[in-house]
Structure formats: structure tokens, C-alpha cells
Amino acid sequence: MAAATPTPTPAIVLIGHGMVGQRYLEALAERGATATHRITVLCEEPRPAYDRVHLTSYFSGSTPEDLSLTPAGFMERHGIELHLGDPAESVDRDARTVTSRSGRVFPYDVLVLATGSYPFVPPVPGKDAPGCFVYRTIEDLLAIEEYAKTLPQTSSGGTPSGAVVGGGLLGLEAAGALKGLGLATRVVEFAPRLMPVQVDDGGGAALLRTIESMGLTVHTGVGTQEVLTGADGSVSGMRLSDGSTVDTDLVVFSAGVRPRDHLARASGLTVGERGGIGVDSRCRTSDPRVYAIGECALAADGRVYGLVGPGYEMAETAAEDLLGRDKEFTGADLSTKLKLLGVDVASFGDAHGAAPGSLDVIYSDSRSGVYKKLVVSPDGVLLGGVLVGDAESYGLLRPLTGSVPPVSPDQLVLPAGLGAPVALGPSALPDSAVICSCHNVTKKAITACSTLPEVKQCTKAGTGCGSCVKMIGQLLPAAADKGLCGCFPFTRAELYEIVRTRRLTSYEQLLDGHGREAARGGDGCEVCKPTVGSIIASLAPTLGASGYVLDGEQAALQDTNDHFLANLQRNGSYSVVPRIPGGEITPDKLIVIGEVARDFGLYTKITGGQRIDLFGASVDQLPRIWARLVEAGFESGHAYGKALRTVKSCVGQTWCRYGVQDSVRMAIDLELRYRGLRAPHKLKSAVSGCARECAEAQSKDFGVIATANGWNLYVGGNGGATPRHADLLAQDLSDAELVRLIDRFLMFYIRTADRLERTSTWLDRLEGGLDHLRDVVVHDSLGLCAELESLMADHVAHYRDEWAETLQDPERLRRFVSFVNAPGAPDPTVKFVPERDQVKPDLTILDIRPLEAVGGTR
Amino acid sequence: MTVELHVSEGWLTVCELSDLTPGRGVAVLLPDGGQAAVFIDRSGRTYAIDNRDPFTGAAVLSRGLVGCAEGRPFVASPLLKQRFDLVSGRCLDDEAEAVRTYPVRTAVTSAAVA
Ligand code: SRM
Ligand SMILES: Cc1cc2nc3c(=O)[nH]c(=O)nc-3n(C[C@H](O)[C@H](O)[C@H](O)COP(=O)(O)OP(=O)(O)OC[C@H]3O[C@@H](n4cnc5c(N)ncnc54)[C@H](O)[C@@H]3O)c2cc1C
Ligand code: SF4
Ligand code: FES
Predict the structure, then answer these.
(1) Whose CA is nearest to atom 2 of ligand 4?
(2) Over 50: is that where the pLDDT of A85 sits?
(3) Which regions of A412-564 does DSSP assign to beta strands (E)?
(4) Per-residue b/e over A203-224, b at no fewer than 16 CB within 10 Å?
(5) Ligand 2 and A625: CB distance under 6 A
(6) Which of the residues A113, A575, A796, B13 could staple to A615 if both were Cys, CB 3.0 to 4.6 A apart?
(7) Which of B32, B36, B114 is nearest to A858 (CA)?
(8) Closest C-alpha to A262, from A12, A16, A11
(9) Cα–Cα distance for residue pair A469/A490, rounded to 1 Å
């Protein structure tokens, strides 16, 4: 620090510890200014800064702690004094002091106002009645949740209802939250369409259709005139401007926000006509000792920014200015991308085509709720756009704004496959393109780094809303070639996404359309074929493809084990493993297995998976063996597949004196639910009836241990060469919760793991590890859970036993011959010798002797 | 259309072309008791090599997966996954090993009765 530090240490007082306030503190810390200044923070809320942007995720399971933005120990480490629940009440600019509600007086050399906004509540009668809420803080959410719980069923037996006043960005989030709380929800928007600020009429219409199809009621073009109350004084309904009334038990006002500029106003600072603390391009107010940043500020360009990205930039600007460095904030764009109630919505730049002479290019498909509009200038410069239903291209389009895109605009809005350019990637962007709008990071700054963690650390890009992370990945040098094999430049997880989103059901289509140039049109290889076969099988019910792994082209993709639905042994014979769910088997079924083994001369062994393996079958014998087994009620055990193997159990509560739950029943349920599920690698599970853990559940991909209150779920365990104890994912789950969580966990693994990566290695590799996994599958941080559950529901609904199906079809049975030119002739090289009362492979066959006169030879 | 294999006794009819699945193989029992593996790739070209995997001694190559590397077709043994060039029989993963190849053709001539 070259600047001479005056003694005594200058004091900074920060009023407001919201998102921008915290960013300001971090900016000071990064620049070493926390060491040279005494910093005091006055925080009105009872908790330190948290992620308001993801507030709604509280309703999908995030705890207030998950939302915290303040790293543990941050304040202590930087010597910052934080006063929770003690808001500033007045500022005396002459004395340079701030007085807080508790009566304490804080002198300052520099004052920073980061007081954010308050929700605007229209002055309608009844607006303060019990049952009226706003949607801004964690406390607001807690109050809404609490109140919703107390609502009785309606007299007609229906569910309680809620209404949101305001159909903008936040209103729709609030509506999603109310719906999530089980309320019949309606949205009342004064403008003629939803999200009037961000989208145009066409986008609003697409949004409306999708939102109505989710069961929400939407009123547009009507205002709220009065909140009606019942006998007890609490909310009972609303009167609308068209004269109609609607019943509702709860009202959330989300009709816009207003800057919190009261302190500034009272202390004589310049405030905008329509609110907002006036600042210059360095974020200084009319008093050079006082800064204002974030949503409370009226920026130099005359706007108040209600988004966190511009707020962060103001925080950086004010921090730089404090240190005498040059940085200006002159405005930002209002691009937004959100996932509202599961619908992608994005708008950027001049979304409404306000620029004179601007032209629109529109693609609209009301069947799928997709609406895309680009605004271009007459000379082809991209000015802005609106994307509803499919915002995939947002990451690319936003940075292209202000330039002439390298391909024509119609190609930019068409869905992939309908003329969308293959080659247009982030490499087409200029260096100055802003990739991360939350942190205002350019392509140039990102490409100076080489890995995502490095980018996050050096530029903070990707650490805000996260919508730019994918784009960042594309900009970084491919560390090494991460491609699956010589045929595909993609990882397994990427191939999964391609197959899923393009709904491809054919390997050749995938290879020819997405393979490496040199591999297209070719025969693929032994690595990618089974991998793609497995991906298609995992997604089959959802893609509408045949779930039978040996149908058509699928047959050519399978490893030999899957091809013959049995495990190849060292001498070319096969083993047969019928499923014995949970390891429970009746004496009659045991007898059938014994008889089959005896009649076909098979070696039998109890496996490490609590079932029985029958070894030494020739290809020709497989159908006959299985005919007997299927007849007796057995199914394929998938010992050959990268699929669910076994769910082991201990005897549990039914017999064991210590058992607290019925572990056998649960193991059977789980095994039957997930049987046949194709995965990147095999999946194993176990259920123990109490903490003594006789089923060794903690060494399984997903292990379940009974507790007095339900079940604990452990994931990522492994035996084998590199054993790993499973991690506890969630505790005391009910049966339904357990199953739901396993559904999500398995589908997330199937979606993102590499080829032949067990859950253990996958979990160790997963960025953010167990915490991230928990965020995704427990707290639904990616908004994926509904989809994961539905994929699993599809799997469960479409499961059919592969062996039973094979036996029904003579065509399929034709492959089970040793020789194509001599069906029925056994393979003379598959031989056995006696061993301990059974047989074992005769392995003296390393020289093949010419054999004469074998039946069926021509 | 039938698939024929050239062995010491001459051309041996093996199966109908339609018995072959693109990308996979079938095993053929030869008059001398030996075994060949016949494959067809996705463009319809057929290949034939010895069925015996020299690494394990098991007659299983016909059950491997067909692929191509640098434009050349191969089969990967289902047991320990070594790859064999379908045209030359050379092992792509171990120069010391190779399997014999057989000339193979498709013909309309012989008994085209299905
Ligand atoms: C039959 C069996 C041994 C036995 O006689 O008990 C067995 C046999 C084989 N195991 Fe296993 N494993 C068997 C239980 C286990 C267990 C114990 C268990 O499941 O509780 C483990 C440790 C648990 C685990 O997987 O985490 C086990 C860990 C492995 C591994 C190491 C996996 C790892 O992640 O490190 C392999 C190798 C692999 O998959 O790459 C393997 C691979 C194999 C293969 C498939 C090797 C191969 O490629 O040929 C063997 C095939 C046998 C066949 O053809 O049928 N087997 N194997 C067991 C069958 C269980 C079943 O009913 O399905
Ligand atoms: C549900 C929801 C979803 C959102 N989604 C997005 C989104 O997707 N993208 C996006 O860019 N933005 C989004 N926003 C907006 C974003 O949260 C704000 O832009 C951002 O929080 C502004 O930060 P701030 O620090 O200026 O204000 P705030 O985060 O509101 O912080 C201001 C803090 O100051 C405190 N305070 C006020 N007066 C005083 C006082 N006198 N003394 C002490 N403390 C005081 C307040 O209690 C508050 O804690 C969303 C907002 C909400 C509510
Ligand atoms: S240790 Fe297991 S996998 Fe290895 S040979 Fe023995 S049974 Fe097979
Ligand atoms: S754009 Fe939000 S984190 Fe980068």
C-alpha cells in the first residue's frame, strides 16, 4: 500500500448488510483496505448478508444457512464490526456520525449507504390486514410459511388459496412459492401481460400459456382495489378493478420496489425525483464522504438498478474510488435470465425494440411454449431480445449484443436442427464481450485463466446467478481432450445431454451428427458403443425408444454380456444369475434353482450379493435354462449389465431382537423399483434394520440404515479395489421420502457420471462434493428434481423383464446359437472337468486340436 | 444373398446375409472342426477371421464389438478387450499377436431359397 495511511485509522460505516453491502466488504478485503480502515456495519435484519436472488429456494429446501453469503469467520478475519438487528436511524453529516436504533453513535470518515429497496405496497384498503405479506427477506418467507400452515381447509373442503399482486419477475417467483406451499394460487397483474418489463406481448403470451398449464390462475389487465377481510379481520378475498371479487386466504404484494432513501433524504443528500440516492459515476452522493451503492442508488445514468449485477459493480467502483483508483459505473444492461416455475425466461438489451428503426426476428411455437425474439438494427447489429421457454442461447446472444452476429439473426432463433448454425460458438465473441453480467467479467478476462476454479477465484465470474458457467466452460482451453474415445469429443455426461435433449434413439445418428469429424460415418468403437447403448437404455422410456436392450441397432451396441443377457466366463461359457430381491427366497424357488442347475450340469455358488450364480452354460443352453427359471417366476438379475445388481438386506425387525424397521421389505421394494435401470456403472445397495449394520449398507452406492424414526440414506459407498465408506445424505426419512431421494440421486448420477465411474469416484470428483449433491437432490438448487423424478417414474413404469421378453420372440432367440451354420451344435471348445462334486472349466484348451466329425458340420 | 467363406476345401456357404447384424459377428464351424468369426460393418462389408482369441484361448472373438480406428475396421475381444484388425488380423494392442483371416464374399448364386 503506497498511499500514506493517516493516523488514526479512518473509519468506514456501512449501512445495510445486503448482497451489495457484503460485496463491498469483500472488495475492500481483496484490496487490503480492511487492514487500513476500521469498518463498522449496521445491519437491520437479524442475520448477516444472504443470497436474496435465491430466496425462493428456501421453499425447495434451502435453509437460511445455505443462503448465507457471508463466509464463516469473514468478519473476524478482517476486523469488521457487525451489528445485527440494529438499523441506522439517523445520519448527522456535520458531526459525521450515525446513530442506530439502540442509541449507539458511530463516527465515520466515510459513510456507505447500501440500504437496498422496500417492496411497494399499493395504498388499497385492507393492505395491512393479517394475511397480507411482502416478499423480500427471509423473515417475510418465514412469516408466509407460518401463516399458510394455520390456514384451515375451506368450508367446501378445498385447499386454501393465495394471491399475488403483481405479475413481474418477483411476483411470479412468489406465486411459485405459494403454489409450492400447497395453496391454490392466482396472480393479478395490472399490465396486459406477465413480466411486462422484461418480455413483449408474444413472450408474455407464451409465458401465460405455460404458467396456466401449471394450474395457476392469471388475471392480466386488472388492478387490485381492495383487500377484503372476514369476521376475524384477516384476509378473505380481493376486489379487482373490473368489479369482480375473488376469494383468497393470503395476499402477497409484489408490485415493484422502491429505493430506501429515507436516511439520505432526512440528512439532506440529493435524492431523485422518483426516489433513489443520487450518485455520480464513482458512486459518490452529493456529499463526497458518502457513497451509495446497490438498489438504493440512483446511478449517474439516471436509473435505479433492481438487479444484483449492477449493484456489485457499484460496490467495486466505490471500493476502488476509496483507494483513489479510477473506476466508473455509468450504467449496466438489464439482462436477466431466470427459471421461473421451471420455465426459462431471458431478456437482454433493447428487448422491446425501443431504438428507432429497429426490426424484429421472431420464432414462436405455441405447442411447446417457446417464443424467441431478436431485435436488430437496420444494419444488422443485434440490439436485444426476449427468450421464453428455451433460453439455451442466452449465454451466447447477450454478449453478442451491440455487434453484428457472425450468422444471420434467423439462424440465431431457429431451434437446433432447423438451420441453427453448428459452428457458432463462444469463439465468435469479441474479447470485450461481457460473459458474466453478475460480476461484469469480459471474455478477455476469462480466457486469461485456464480452469473454471481459477476463473471463479480470479474474476468471480460464475459465482453469482451461475447462468454464465456453461459459457465459461466453452471459453476455457480444453485442458486435455476430455472426449469419451476416439469417436466422440464429448464426455459421457455431455452425450447423455445430447441424447436427452435431441431425443436421439440411434447410435449412428449420434455418431454421424456429433462424433469427431474422422469418426462420422464409421463403425464407432468398443468404448462408445456400450456407453451410448446404456445412455439410450437409461432414457428409453422418456425418449419413446424401445426399452428392450437387444432391439434393432441397440443389439449391436451391447457388450457381449448384455448381448447374451448373461456373464461371459473365461472359457467362453456363461453364468446365469436370477434376481432374488433382498436375498429373500422361498424353499420352492430354491428347489427350482437346484433342479435347473442339476439338469443342465451347472456349477452353483452363493454370491457375495446374497443370491445364487449358476456357471458353465453354453450359449445354446441359455434360452432353455431361462425358460425354466421364468416359468418359476424368476427374472433377470442383471449380473451382466451396468445396472442395479442387488439390494442386500439383513433380517431386520421381523426376526431380529434389535431391528427397528422392516429392512427386508424395504430392500425388496428398492430392488424391484430400480431393477433394470441402466447406469454408467453397476449399482449396489443394501438395507440394514438397525445401526448394527449387518447388511453393510455403508459400502454401497446407496445404503439405507433404519432408525427409530425412519431411514438414514448413505451414498457413494464402494467395496472393491478402493473401498470407500458411504456418506450420510439425509436422516430419518419416511418410506416415501427415502424413495424420492434415491430416485433423484440415481438419476442425477446417471446424468452426470463418466463411463464406468462408480458413485464413489463420481462423488469424489463432483465439484462441491457431498454439499453440492445435497443442494441438488435435497434442496433442488438446480431446479432439476421434478425432472429427475419423472425420468425415474418413466423407468419404473416401463420396466419389463428382458429374459421373459426374449423368450417370447423367436427372432430374438435365433442369436443364441454357438454356430450360425450349425444351430444346435454345441461349441466343442467349451469343456469342463470335475471339481469338488461339481464342474469347473477345462482350461487346457490353449492349443486348439483339429476336431473331426462334429455333428452338423457341412 | 448368402455369405461365403474361402477355406481349404473351397467356398463354404455360411449363412444368409440377413442373418448378420451390422456391428456384430457370428461364429462359424469349419469342416476341419476349427472356428471362424464373420462380421459385417454398418456399410455392409463383411470380414472373417479366426474365432479363437489368442490371449485366452477361448473361441469368442465373434462375440466382440466391431469398431473402426483410423478408418480400419476391428473387433475387440469380449474377454480382455484386445482389438484385432478385421482386414489383416493383426492385433492392434500387441504387435506380437495376430489371428488368421479368411476371404469372404456375398453371393447370389448358391441356394437363394430362404
Ligand atoms: C459372482 C460374484 C463373486 C461371487 O462369487 O460372490 C462377482 C463376480 C464378479 N465380479 Fe464382483 N462379484 C460379486 C460380488 C461383488 C462384491 C460384493 C457385493 O456386491 O456385495 C463386490 C464389492 C462391492 C462393490 O462392488 O462395491 C464386488 C466387486 C467387484 C469389482 C470392483 C468394483 C469396484 O468398484 O472396485 C469388479 C470389477 C469391476 O466392476 O470393474 C467386479 C467384477 C466382477 C466380475 C464381473 C468380473 C468380470 O468382469 O468378469 C465377476 C463376474 C462373475 C460372473 O461372471 O458372474 N466385482 N463384486 C459376486 C456377484 C454378486 C451378485 O450377486 O451380483
Ligand atoms: C425474490 C427475489 C428474487 C430476485 N431475483 C433476482 C435475480 O434473479 N437477479 C437479480 O439480478 N436480482 C434479483 N433480485 C434483486 C436482488 O436481490 C437485489 O438487486 C439485491 O439484493 C440488491 O442488493 P442491495 O444490497 O442493494 O439490497 P438488499 O439486498 O436489499 O440489502 C439491503 C439491506 O439493507 C438493510 N437496511 C435498509 N435500511 C437500513 C438501515 N437504515 N440500517 C441498517 N440496514 C438497513 C436491509 O434490511 C437489507 O438487509 C431478486 C430479489 C428478490 C427479493
Ligand atoms: S476376485 Fe472376484 S472378480 Fe476377481 S476373479 Fe475372483 S471372483 Fe472374479
Ligand atoms: S452471469 Fe450470473 S454468475 Fe455470471
Answers:
(1) A465
(2) yes
(3) 434-436, 441-442
(4) bbbbbbbbbeeeebebbbeebb
(5) no
(6) A575
(7) B32
(8) A16
(9) 17
Q: Is A243 on the interface with B (CB under 8 A)?
A: no
A437 CA: nearest ligand 4 atom: 1
From the list A734, A750, A748, the residue with the least C-alpha distance to A788 is A748
Nearest to B56 among A522, A564, A570 (CB): A570
Q: What is the mean pLDDT of chain A?
A: 87
Give the type of residue at A301: D
- Give which of A574, A578, A536, A575 is closest to A553, Cα–Cα: A536
Residue found under cell 444488422: A380
In one-letter notation, the amino acid at residue B89 is G
CB A336 within 8 A of CB A347: yes
Give the separation between CA A267 and CA A277, rounded to whole angstroms.
Answer: 11
How far apart are the C-alpha atoms of A118 and A52, rounded to whole Å?
Answer: 13
A448's grid cell: 486469461
Across the interface, do B67 and A526 touch by the CB < 8 Å criterion? Answer: yes
pLDDT at A417: 53
Q: Is the CB of A720 under 6 A from ligand 1?
A: yes
Are the beta carbons of A444 and A431 closer than 8 angstroms?
Answer: yes
How many CB atoms sit inside 10 A of residue A828's CB?
17
Q: Tell me the Ramachandran region of residue A389: left when phi exceeds 0, alpha when psi lies from -120 to 50, beta otherwise.
A: left
Query: Does the beta carbon of A464 lie inside 6 Å of ligand 4?
Result: yes
Q: Which residue has the higher pLDDT, B112 or A400?
A: A400
Chain A residue with the nearest C-alpha to that of B36? A819
- If you take atom 29 of ligand 2, which residue's CA is the nearest one? A18
Instruction: Report the residue from A523, A529, A819 with minimal CB separation from B41.
Output: A523
C-alpha cell at A242: 373490473
Cβ proximity of A353 and A360 under 8 Å:
yes
Looking at residue A421, what is its pLDDT? 47
| Distance from C-alpha of A234 to C-alpha of A240, rounded to nearest angstrom | 18
A530, A560, A825 member nearest B63 (Cβ): A560
Q: How far apart are CA A424 and CA A396, in angstroms?
A: 9
Q: Is the CB of A713 under 6 A from ligand 2?
A: no
Does A845 contact B57 at a Cβ distance shorter than 8 Å?
Answer: yes
CA of A27, closest CA in chain B: separation in Å? 53
DSSP secondary structure string, A125-170?
A: TTTTSTTEEE-SSHHHHHHHHHHHHHPPPPTTSPPPEEEEE--SHH
Cell of A737: 421420502
Considering only CA atoms, which residue is closest to atom 6 of ligand 2? A53
**Low-confidence winner among A105-109, A425-429, A651-655 (lowest mean pLDDT):** A425-429
Tally DSSP H helices, then E strands, for chain A. Answer: 28, 38
The CA dihedral of A590, A595, A601, A602, to the nearest 10 degrees, is -20
Q: Is the pLDDT of residue A13 over 50?
A: yes
Give the whole-angstrom CA distance, residue A554 versus residue A507.
8
Round to whole Å and give the CA distance between A448 and A435: 13
CA–centroid distance, A403 to ligand 4, in Å, is 21
Residue A343 has what pLDDT? 72
Half-sphere exposure of B53 (CA within 13 A, CB side): 21
CB-closest option in B19, B58, B63 to A571 = B58
Q: Does A486 touch chain B (CB under 8 A)?
A: yes
Q: Which helix (H) or strand (E) holds A772?
A: helix A769-777
Identify the CA nearest to A412 among candidates A442, A457, A382, A434.
A382
What is the Å distance from ligand 2's center to A107 Cα? Answer: 25
Which CA distances in Å does A582 have to A396, A594, A671?
A: 50, 19, 7
